[in-house]
Design a protein that fits this description.
Elements (H helix, E strand, L loop, with lengths): L2 E7 L16 H21 L4 E7 L11 E4 L5 H11 L4 E4 L8 H9 L7 E5 L5 E6 L17 H11 L4 E3 L9 H10 L4 H11 L1 E4 L2 E4 L10
Helix pairs in contact: 1-6, 5-6
Length: 226
């Protein structure tokens, strides 16, 4: 029996994926983020979880999450928000993010098919030094609070925290976390049939280049900075 949690935020232009701007407009970046969430939720629905949860920051829940339980994110830094989640859930729980839309059922299958009693945690590293997945057999927020987040050594800090607690950790595949436009293009090439890839192709197709600088064809988006 395993709970699967997807952490996401409402895709409001200027609030999500702002590092994709430029070359994308803030509206396009939000559309790409929304597609990434939908891809992630679709994979989550196909996994044999006993409970599916959306750890959500926002008001309008994303399309595809209608059958998920919603836990609102608390205020504070990311380590506090994740810690609060792992304090609230019971039993084996795995958390995944919204920034790896190329994730597959096969990548997460070991968590649901092979979580034996001698495995205390699962860890999915991201290429930027963070992590895209964290599973705990006995959830407790103390394993996350105080871990420095959004750094190039966040994953190393988190793994050290698990090791210091004496936990046996199994690894999941490393995935590319979408932060920059280069990340986005790499992920889209990896998963060309995804909603994410389609949204990125559409966004880039509607852009034009003037004097070597990518601009959107909508003048209302010009001059906007994150």
């Amino acid at each position: 029996m395993t709970t699967l949690v997807v952490i996401a935020k409402e895709t409001i232009p200027g609030k999500v994926k702002t590092r994709l701007h430029p070359p994308l407009s803030l509206e396009q970046a939000a559309d790409v983020a929304a597609a990434a969430i939908q891809d992630t939720l679709e994979v989550a629905r196909r996994l044999l979880a006993t409970r599916r949860v959306l750890l959500f920051d926002g008001n309008r829940r994303p399309v595809g999450s209608e059958d998920f339980d919603v836990i609102p994110q608390i205020g504070g830094d990311l380590d506090a928000r994740l810690g609060a989640l792992f304090d609230e859930v019971d039993g084996k729980t795995v958390l995944i993010g919204m920034d790896t839309p190329q994730v597959t059922v096969e990548a997460l299958a070991p968590v649901f098919d092979d979580w034996t009693d001698d495995v205390d945690a699962w860890f999915g590293p991201a290429n930027d030094g963070g992590f895209w997945a964290l599973g705990l057999a006995r959830p407790t927020g103390d394993l996350l609070r105080g871990v420095p987040m959004s750094q190039d050594d966040t994953g190393a800090h988190q793994l050290r925290r698990l090791a210091d607690a004496g936990l046996t950790v199994r690894m999941l595949p490393e995935l590319v976390d979408v932060d920059t436009i280069d990340d986005a293009r790499l992920v889209a090439a990896t998963a060309p049939e995804s909603r994410f890839a389609a949204a990125l192709r559409h966004a880039e197709a509607t852009n034009t280049t003037t004097n070597g600088v990518a601009r959107t064809t909508d003048p209302a988006t010009e001059g906007v900075t994150p």
